[in-house]
Amino acid sequence: MNSRKFLIVNADDFGISESVSRGILFGHEFGVVSSTTAITNGRFFEEGARLLRSMPALGVGVHLNLDEETAALPPSKIPSLVDEEGRFYSRWTMISRLIRGTSLVSDVAAEWSAQIRRCLDFGISPSHLDSHGHIYHLPVLHALIGDLAVKFGINSVRRTTPQLGSLARNPGALMKSISLLACGIPFDRRPQLQKVAKVRAIGLEESGRCTHLDLVNHIRRLPPGVTEIMLHPGFNGPDNSVYEGWQYRWEQELQAITDIRVIEEIERNGVELVSHHDLVGLRYE
Q1: Which fold has domain 5-279?
Q2: φ and ψ at residue 63, rounded to 5 degrees
Q3: 14 and 43 Cβ atoms separated by less than 8 Å
Q4: Contact residues for 185 (Cβ-Cβ < 8 A; gap 6+)
Q5: What is the pLDDT of residue 176?
Q6: How much is the mean pLDDT over the chain?
Q7: How far apart are CA 280 and CA 285, in angstroms?
Q8: Phi, psi of 129 (to 5 degrees)
Q9: How far is CA 255 from CA 24, 41, 46, in A?
Q10: CB 16 within 8 A of CB 243
Q11: 251 phi/psi in degrees, rounded to 5
Q12: Exposure b/e, 74-89, CB count within 10 A at least 16 = b
């Protein structure tokens, strides 16, 4: 590949709502979105899967989650992860329990397998895996994510890579960035993850509030090889009200990925826009 630059523009959270999902599809049709990851236990995923199948050029991965929506499996199958109604416990409750030991991992394996199978059941072959809130970067889950990728024939996983120089845009991401940097060392060395491509993913610091200028700056600084930019575009809508606590600016990001200046910057820099599916057989690490 020499100095060739490949860019995956991934829109997270497909399936959480109709407004977000349709915004992602709009960003693919009229902008630079080349990939998305679906929350397969999301409220809109079943209907959204039909729309995804109509866009074969859009790569679709699974956005594994442990703290949004109702679990894919019933409470009796994963009692350590959900309440009696099948809702996941809070993110921080889950993280604290996972940090304390491995007793939850078997339930996580069952639930995440079900989330991946749900994608397959709707006729979509997952291009890659990533996780909501970057939770699979916790060392206790490193081996599991590698095992799941191999089990389901998935060749690529996201490797979130903080860009500390961008923290001025979101100082609140400092602790998350430091934690991910620390977790990245064992992630890279885990034997189970040597069998899959670990794709460098940036955009953490602008998460949910990325502008066209942020994208232009990322594109100008792309190194040779493959880079993923993770984004959260969508349309605003009342069905997003349950997620107001995220403080995401969905339409701001949608405007950024459809901005002609971003499209022109990709062309000007000779960047090849790809999806995770396109990486099969390529030597880029």
Answers
A1: TIM Barrel (3.20.20)
A2: -95, 85
A3: no
A4: none
A5: 58
A6: 90
A7: 12
A8: -120, 140
A9: 11, 27, 26
A10: yes
A11: -70, -30
A12: eeeebeebbeeebebb
